[in-house]
Amino acid sequence: MIYHFSMSEIINRNITIAEVAQNTTSTGKQNIKIKDDKGLTYTLWPTKTNGEESKAYTYLKSLGYDAAGTVVSIGLKEEQGEYNGRAVTYRTIIGMRDADSRPQAPQRTQDTGLEQRVTKIETQVAFLMGKQANTEPQAPPPADPHQEISVDQIPF
């Protein structure tokens, strides 16, 4: 399975690691399960789809598997699904680094900022339409005497 995430789908948050465990999927693939202090579970894949080690996994290895109590900043993707007949949220870590002191951004949804972007575009269109309606024909700017021209452009 290949994931392609747009930036608006990535959620950034600080978590306190409570537990780290290696896991094997039903298809035999290895991943890491991380549980935070709130009881939420996250999946971290050790390798990218191209087989290279993921940066998040490299960072986690630098902490060691006894990382309980460590506060980290993660980027993750949440997906809603179903497991054994009940609704679940799959949380996949796609980035991990030292926690920072910046305030946490609110969780983003797919339509975050859409209204502001539409308003901005409407304002730009109105400006351009108004400018085009009020524009008088103007003489072309004076020619640059150092500008290179081709022979085809010389009037005879």
Notes on the structure:
A hairpin with a 2-residue loop joins strand 4 (71-83) and strand 5. This protein has a single domain (1-132), classed as Beta Barrel (OB fold (Dihydrolipoamide Acetyltransferase, E2P)), CATH 2.40.50. It has helices at 55-63, 114-133, and strands at 11-24, 30-36, 41-44, 71-83, 86-98. It contains 2 helices and 5 strands; from the N terminus they run E-E-E-H-E-E-H. It is of the alpha+beta class. The protein is elongated. A 5-stranded mixed beta barrel has the order 1-2-3-5-4. Helix content is 19%, strand content 33%. The longest helix has 20 residues, at 114-133.
Record the SSE blueprint.
Blueprint: E1 11-24, E2 30-36, E3 41-44, H1 55-63, E4 71-83, E5 86-98, H2 114-133
Parallel strand pairs: 3-5
Antiparallel strand pairs: 1-2, 1-4, 2-3, 4-5
Protein traits:
156 residues; alpha+beta; 5-stranded mixed β-barrel
CATH topology: OB fold (Dihydrolipoamide Acetyltransferase, E2P)
Biggest sheet strand order reads 1-2-3-5-4
Shape: elongated
Note the main sheet: 5 strands, mixed, barrel
Number of alpha- plus pi-helical segments: 2
Radius of gyration: 27 Å
Q: Please state roughly what percent of the residues sit in beta strands, choosing from under 5%, 5-15%, 15-25%, 25-35%, 35-45% or over 45%.
A: 25-35%
**N to C succession of SSEs:** EEEHEEH
Q: Roughly what percent helix?
A: 10-25%
CATH architecture level-2 label:
Beta Barrel
Quick overview of this protein structure:
This protein has two helices and five strands, in the order βββαββα.
